[in-house]
Design brief:
With 359 residues, this protein is α+β, with helices and mostly antiparallel strands. The protein has two domains: 1-68 and 325-359, Hypothetical Oxidoreductase Yiak, Chain: A, domain 1 (Orthogonal Bundle), CATH 1.10.1530; 70-184 and 230-311, 2-Layer Sandwich (Ribosomal Protein S8, Chain: A, domain 1), CATH 3.30.1370. It contains twelve helices and 13 strands. The protein has a seven-stranded mixed sheet, sandwiched between helices. A four-stranded mixed sheet has the order 6-11-9-10, with no helix packed on it. Helix 1 (9-21) crosses helix 2, helix 1 (9-21) packs antiparallel against helix 12 (348-355) and helix 11 (331-343) packs across helix 12 (348-355).
Length: 359
């Protein structure tokens, strides 16, 4: 068996659609979930791509993920919204919630939306992309309700999730700024990918179950569990707390705590969507934005770098490369997908055949 497979987006998408149908999903849900996961892989974020489906299938089997669920509006104040995801696929819930927030921003110039009880929202940058495509700024604070995986600064065990923070900023005539990162030094999914690929982590990423520095990603994946560290020491830790309180306590009415053993991954998200034309002079915003970005990226590259990049640029480069060459899927992840197919009563041989993978 190969150590890894290189699969082009179209056949991989066909295989994943077949797998997602096993949840009992309606066709619209199948398309949204599949497209979102494949896009994560295309942009180089394998941690948030198709490798999440085995975890989703376990959550679904336990009842923690609901197929064909949609957002429910709990509070509607016009430009101020609170919605409940009803434990539905984050790919569907996130899309519906952002569509609503963007509609309100078009009407009022801005919208603050609190989303709670969504199953895994996947790559938060996808929701910022929806906003910048309409010319809007968007800001996202997200918490994670699952097994704690990140240690607080100065602590030696895990107390909260990877709690992402994202900002999307449109740039007239150019690609947008898309800043999207976990407040941990790496996403938990990246540790899973490294574990599946039998790779070590660089120093300063993870601690073992005794709180000692380690390079073994297994401490983020299997027992005995350790913890991932926050980025920037106290800075990432502080941002993680802010995301927990704003995305969790405020938006979802639910924050993280001790592990329960459940496989579901719930997210709360506080989203701010702004029409820059409603708050600033459009011409000056566009002019000053371009001038600053030109100034920053004109910095001569130092040793080991080919140029200065902006947030969102690496993802676009990865997407072009993987559309042309294919998406790499390690053998362990592929086997986990086939096991998920069995769990969902989908023929694993058909999944491999659709993807063009030979056992």
């Amino acid at each position: 068996m190969a150590d890894a497979y290189l699969i082009h987006a179209e056949p991989l998408g066909a295989a994943i659609r077949e797998l997602v149908r096993g949840f009992g999903s309606e066709q619209r849900e199948v398309e949204l979930v599949t497209d979102n996961l494949i896009q994560a892989n295309l942009t180089g974020h394998d941690s948030h791509g198709i490798g999440m489906l085995p975890r989703y299938s376990e959550a679904w089997a336990e009842g923690g993920l609901k197929a064909n669920a949609h957002i429910k509006t709990l509070m509607d104040g016009g430009a101020l919204l609170r919605v409940d995801g009803q434990a539905g696929f984050g790919q569907v819930v996130g899309h519906e919630a952002m569509t609503l927030a963007i509609e309100r921003a078009k009407k009022f110039g801005s919208c603050i939306m609190a989303l709670g009880n969504s199953h895994h929202l996947c790559r938060i940058g996808a929701w910022a992309e929806m906003a910048v495509a309409e010319g809007f700024v968007s800001i996202h604070f997200v918490n994670v309700i699952s097994r704690p995986i990140v240690a607080p600064f100065g602590g030696r065990d895990a107390r909260f999730g990877t709690n992402p923070f994202t900002v999307g900023i449109p740039v007239a005539g150019r690609d947008p700024i898309l800043l999207d990162f976990a407040t941990s030094v790496i996403a938990q999914g990246k540790a899973r990918v490294a574990h599946n690929k039998r790779e070590k982590l660089p120093p300063g990423r993870i601690i073992d179950n005794e709180g000692r520095d380690s390079d073994d990603p297994a401490y983020a994946v299997v027992d005995p569990l350790g913890a991932i560290l926050a980025f920037g020491e106290h800075k990432g830790y502080g941002m993680a707390v802010a995301c927990e309180l704003l995305g969790g306590a405020l938006s979802a009415g639910l924050v993280g705590g001790p592990a329960t053993g459940e496989r579901r991954v719930l997210n709360g998200m506080l989203t701010i969507v702004l029409d820059p034309k409603a708050i600033a002079d459009a011409a000056s915003f566009e002019r000053e934005t371009r001038a600053f970005l030109d100034w920053v990226t004109a910095s001569p590259p130092r040793a080991g770098f080919d140029k200065v990049r902006l947030a969102g640029e690496p993802e676009r480069e990865w997407r072009a490369k993987r559309l042309a060459e294919g998406i790499p899927v390690d053998a362990n992840t592929w086997n986990e997908l086939l096991e998920a197919a069995v769990r969902l009563k989908v023929d694993p041989a058909k999944i491999s055949r659709l993807a063009g993978v030979k056992s």
